[in-house]
């Protein structure tokens, strides 16, 4: 256990009350220790997209590390009569001691992909439901949007700058998820500090308005940070702004930023003006309410980079990924797993242990998300050249695999997404609504 | 200053990098101390709604209290060369020492309502932009959705239970914002602890699936928490579930919960079945992907309470309120305020100091959002019986008014919304898209 653990705040009350009520009832009824298997999956991809990208796993592992009931949490639960004393005593000793497998962070996923499998006692596992879903549903919603923007940008760099349009802590998670999905930088300083993501940003309209003229503001900025900066040129008239920017910084000006107007037209005009002023290497960055469709529409004009705000941090129309956390099996009296599943017509889930692989054709292009249903990896014939196993073990008997956590885990997740994206069929990059690019098949 | 302050984490890096770059440039250029006025407003109401509800103010004040640059923040900024040493020295002493006025939390708002006015030096005020917008944009997005759900529920109680569909910290803020907008409870325990919001919840499908039969699960729950509980009856067949619930708890059963199916039909059937079993006082609560429209559609059937998840925590289609933070005036060399405003065609803002009132008719119904533009309250003729002033002072020369913070401030905000809602015209409660229910008028 990491020695700094005790300094982190407890995450245990980021939990729905009913999780604790269920633990309380199960302890009293004698079923709390029943060995169980819980699974996180999404019944469909939000927004009729072609694939999703798993994000949040590394964050979740850190939060599970700090999921414990200290005196403050226990006192509050006691005073509010949430659970009985017997359950309070059990909670006081709580540390997750089970095992967790899951899709690697940055992996593509499809409807019913078993994204996370938690194997533990009923009580230990059920307590993690709310926290696991909060993290995976938000972070994956952002990654699902971001990966489409990265595709639409066709290699041009993207910066996430939506902090102001998300809860202040969501903003940090959003920067991380967008980075995993292929963004290059963020405006959010806390995301830089916590996750090692490159940060960017130079000035807002307020800086121009503070000064008597646009050129005075530009000269102040260039004096402070050098001519290789980005000047925001649309506070008044854009053409005047561009001229003032080049006058202040010289043709070595790093970039101009456009945050309003009809961008496909404006970008072409600004490029011509910059070139005519000798600022042929000055770049153009655009930032006005972009989403994946607006980015795609700019692919034919000379934009050098994009800044994306609201749409990426709110999942571009799908602000939660729709994942659920379900009990799929429990250990019977004979020691075997008993698959269990809810029967409500529109919410059917498939009971039992899963072992997912991605089937590839001989050209190494994915053709199917194949989920073996059975007693576990040891029973399946997976792992061949044409079946890439999708599970990694994240937690082993309570011990977190640190390769998936922190800035290094974040960097690895970003690399993983870049690597596996080339394995998806070409229609995965389509922005229109449609069916998932791979079928999900269960094999028992 | 509160003695517990030093124990709270610094919030200062929940900030876009460009805020610090602007401070750096302004310090070097000698303009950092210019007295400035910044304003938060929304150019339009999201989703073509009729009014908005301000939420987040109390949370923001707590975050401003902890907005400081400790050694950890300063070291990171230095190592990453975000600002110069001179600016680091200035940041080390940073405490917000200006004044803030704003709409009371829980107040209704309209396009261009000046929701928050920050009066301080340029450098002190610009640093708060990202944090202020993160908080107000998210919390108000939730309150904007929640207030419509409360109206649609026509007096029936509502519980917020969307924690699993929002970032784990957003979930706490969402519970608070929904409560301010008239919800009665939340599933989120941390929201109970931090903000004093009543918490609720009993069991999920996992608890039923843990046991050999539905009735065994129900008996275990009733044994643990008593018959005045809520039993979830839709894991298998609903009618069987209702019978098993009454068998386990007796006719004193508190409530049954329905989480799937065609609710308008199902609720009627379940009510009849409960009555036929003698459980005439057992209530029915429904929780299946509800939003304001689904709630309205259930108004004619005997639902007793609603649980709302995804749609409330994601703003029911509008996950960010679209507020901006703009420099609107700066002090000139002669000591007078100089109004400033950006000129980009679609993003015009109105410069200068504002003093907003809500004009009422003789029946005390609001008819206009009237914004006096001028040097401040002392110049206006507001405050008459037919002009309700909308500003309260939140921070006075760096000192936070504690009546707006903590659980008490949250409770007051909820009361304020309930009180002022009756002042809005009848068409404010319409769920369809349309124009704001009040026009916003500027008077100089």
From TrEMBL, chains A, B:
Reactions catalysed: 5-phospho-alpha-D-ribose 1-diphosphate + nicotinate + ATP + H2O = nicotinate beta-D-ribonucleotide + ADP + phosphate + diphosphate
Cited InterPro entries: Aldolase_TIM, NAPRTase_N, Nic_PRibTrfase-Fam, Nic_PRibTrfase_pncB, Nicotinate_pribotase-like_C
Domain Nicotinate phosphoribosyltransferase N-terminal: 13-137
Region: Disordered, residue numbers: 423-444
CC terms in the record's Gene Ontology section: cytosol
GO process annotations (BP): NAD+ biosynthetic process via the salvage pathway
Post-translational modification comment from the UniProt entry: Transiently phosphorylated on a His residue during the reaction cycle. Phosphorylation strongly increases the affinity for substrates and increases the rate of nicotinate D-ribonucleotide production. Dephosphorylation regenerates the low-affinity form of the enzyme, leading to product release.
Pathway note: Cofactor biosynthesis; NAD(+) biosynthesis; nicotinate D-ribonucleotide from nicotinate: step 1/1
GO MF term list: glycosyltransferase activity; nicotinate phosphoribosyltransferase activity
Pfam families: NAPRTase_N (PF17767)
Family per similarity comment: Belongs to the NAPRTase family.
PANTHER family (alphabetical): NICOTINATE PHOSPHORIBOSYLTRANSFERASE (PTHR11098), NICOTINATE PHOSPHORIBOSYLTRANSFERASE PNCB1 (PTHR11098:SF8)
Reported function: Catalyzes the first step in the biosynthesis of NAD from nicotinic acid, the ATP-dependent synthesis of beta-nicotinate D-ribonucleotide from nicotinate and 5-phospho-D-ribose 1-phosphate.
Name of the protein in its database record: Nicotinate phosphoribosyltransferase
Originating species: Mycetocola miduiensis
